[in-house]
Structures are given as C-alpha cells and as structure tokens.
Amino acid sequence: FILPMPMEYDLLWTSASLLMAMFASSLALILLRQKSRPFILVLGGVFIGLGISSMHYMGMEGMKSHLEIHYRPSLFFLSILIGIV
C-alpha cells in the first residue's frame, strides 16, 4: 500500500497487533474444539470479531505519519459491531 506521504510503522504497536490476532484466533479455536453448541459458536465469533477489531485499530496506531487520526465514537463502535457480526 503506497500513500502519497511519508509513512513509518512503530514496531511495538505492529507486533502487538499481530499478537492480538494470534491470541484471539487461538482462543476462538480452543472454544470451537468443544461441542458445537450455538452459544459456543457465537462466543467464538465474538472473540474473532473483537480480535479483528483490536488488530485493526492497534495496527492503525502503529502507523506513524504527520497526520493525526481522530475517530468518531459512534462509527468506531459500529465498526467493532460489524467486525463481530
């Protein structure tokens, strides 16, 4: 991905983003190894959705540029809900 401005990535935030994705995926897979009851399937989906959202926003924090990013709370929480659904 090439942006029309200088961009760097913070190693700590980018690494934490990767670890968050791995943790959420592992937790969901551990849950889904159990009997496939609807509650367990929904809980696994919630963990994956939260992991995707956390990975995304942690990765966004790891992007360093001269711009300052601001999030609208309503759209922020809507994006998390979409990730879970």
Give keywords.
mainly alpha; 69% helix; 85 residues; 3 helices; single chain
Structural class: mainly alpha
Largest sheet: 2 strands, antiparallel
Order of helices and strands: EHHEH
Number of strands: 2
Share in β-strands: under 5%
Can you walk me through this structure?
- This protein starts with 7 loop residues before the first strand and ends with a helix.
- With 85 residues, it is mainly α.
- The longest helix has 25 residues, at 38-62.
- It is elongated and about 50 Å long.
- The protein has helices spanning 11-32, 38-62, 73-84, and strands at residues 8-9, 63-64.
- The chain has a two-stranded antiparallel sheet with strand order 1-2.
- It has three helices and two strands; from the N terminus they run βααβα.
Write the layout of secondary structure elements.
Layout (H helix, E strand, L loop, with lengths): L7 E2 L1 H22 L5 H25 E2 L8 H12 L1
Antiparallel strand pairs: 1-2
Helix pairs in contact: 1-2, 2-3
